[in-house]
Specification:
The chain has 190 residues and is mainly alpha-helical. It has helices at residues 3-17, 30-47, 65-86, 94-99, 108-116, 120-126, 128-150, 163-187; strands spanning 23-24, 27-28, 52-57, 154-159.
Length: 190
């Protein structure tokens, strides 16, 4: 390392780490560099308080949840289509059978079939939440298929979750299900 680079490195190390670092003879030792990297990462994590989307590479032997979710959603979709094409009766909603009222998920199958036939407006009228969820799953499946075909090992990940954010997300999901259920009750879905 030339003297100019060394001075720049030492200056930035001293500036970033402050008085806590032990820098001998103007050159940080290995332990000090490791502490500095750790301190800088912790500092960056503390500064970032929100959720963020980032690309993270998969480790060589890491389980690929994206591929597993793609396989699961495609298998489920194929099973539903085969069931439909075979002419089997759809399972009845036990909640509706007991109460006469639609459950929060009534119409989800019909909404999915409407989407498969290209009738997005009918799907939304039947069950808005299921339609949005199916569209999201479709976009996610498309994303996963593209990255698998392209051979990319880097995957989009959402960072910054903590217990409080998980509770907020859960409450938001419950609120959406409740609003959707109210819509179904008002519509008297049949």
């Amino acid at each position: 390392m030339d003297e100019h680079t060394n001075r720049g490195l030492n200056g930035s190390l001293k500036q970033a780490a402050g008085d806590r670092l032990l820098i001998r003879n103007g050159t940080p030792d290995g332990q000090t560099r490791r502490r500095l990297n750790s301190d800088l990462q912790k500092c960056a994590a503390r500064r970032h308080h929100g959720l963020r989307l980032r690309l993270r590479p998969l480790a060589p032997d890491e389980f690929d949840p994206d591929a597993a979710l793609l396989a699961g959603s495609l298998s489920f979709g194929a099973a539903v289509l085969l069931w439909h094409e075979a002419g089997f009766p759809w399972p009845q909603c036990w909640f509706r059978a007991l109460t006469g009222l639609p459950c929060p998920f009534c119409g989800a199958t019909h909404a999915g079939l409407a989407l498969l036939h290209g009738d997005a407006l009918a799907a939304i009228r039947i069950n808005p939440l299921a339609s949005v969820v199916y569209a999201g799953i479709g976009l996610y499946d498309l994303y996963v298929a593209l990255i698998l075909v392209a051979g990319h090992r880097r995957r989009l990940r959402l960072d910054g979750f903590n217990q409080q954010r998980e509770k907020v997300l859960l409450l938001a999901g419950l609120l959406l299900v409740t609003i959707n259920w109210a819509y179904l009750l008002v519509q008297g879905w049949h």
